[in-house]
Amino acid sequence: MRIRKAVIPAAGLGVRFLPATKALPKEMIPIVDTPTIQYIIQEAVDSGIEDILIITGRDKKPIEDHFDKSVALEEHLKEKGKTGELEMLHRISDMAQIFYVRQQEPRGLGHAVYCARRFVGDEPFAVLLGDDIVRSEVPCLKQLMDLYDEVQATVIGVQEVPPADVSKYGILDAEPVRENVYRVRDLVEKPAPEEAPSRLAIMGRYIIEPAVFDILARTKPGAGGEIQLTDALRELAGPGEMYGLVFQGRRYDVGDKLGYLKATVEFALARPDLAGQFRSYLETLVRERRGS
Ligand code: UTP
Known about the structure:
This protein is of the alpha/beta class. The chain folds into 2 domains: 251 residues, Spore Coat Polysaccharide Biosynthesis Protein SpsA, Chain A (Alpha-Beta Complex), CATH 3.90.550.10; 37 residues, no CATH class. Helices cover 36% and strands 25% of the residues. The protein contains 11 helices and 13 strands. The strands form 3 sheets. Strands 5-4-1-6-11-8-12-10-9 form a 9-stranded mixed β-sheet. A two-stranded antiparallel sheet has the order 2-3. Strands 7-13 form a two-stranded antiparallel ribbon. The termini are far apart. Bound molecules: uridine 5'-triphosphate.
């Protein structure tokens, strides 16, 4: 079955990004000048997704407004003859068919995904988390979708992390099928380095079979008192087939402050309108710091 629908959970509290996230959803924090959720939606659209559901929390308005038309702003730009900016706004509001549902309480990622059950119905669907932004030739989600076409089973996007970092991630217990493709036996949440079954870390991209909803309906709160998607996926992997794909591309953990800063610098260096001046600023800064 073809993957047509994507779910983007954006109802977390964003505690790691306080105070910015006190009144602003984490997903609206920009990298250079673009909110992180726009990169995620672009990836979904570039992968061929038709309908997108964003799971929002209490501060959903800025997200909805961002992807909606802004009549007053458009009028203003028209009057000033700023056609470039106007076209940019149109591109954003025409990106995709976006739907919203509210998760009334942040009861965990598993619960957020469960809120998508009516939107998804009985077909496999994609989940993209805004904390992971990937720059790649083939969009990251498209890489997962291509593997799904072949295996017709749940696919989890992973990348290898250094041993010291395994305790920050969900890790696959898996056997290789071919280069970059693994059959999943089990998933282990944040293992100690000496207990980790591999270094294949789950990176916020999934294609999931709809059977997960029946499992999520009865998944009890796990780590942190939250309903964990990983717990439901473990159960799904038990009787069924599940694959891990080591996707190609550079991934940024923008949910983490250092990762966010790295993404900001690298995205700015990749922008033709900023790269030259920004690079010479960074070079001067490094020289000055070395000298001091
Ligand atoms: P995180 O665990 O990163 O939580 O959730 P968070 O609240 O966003 O960030 P911190 O850890 O408090 O700083 C992973 C993804 O799941 C969503 C988040 O919005 C994020 O995209 N999520 C999490 C929900 O939609 N609902 C929840 O109840 C929990």
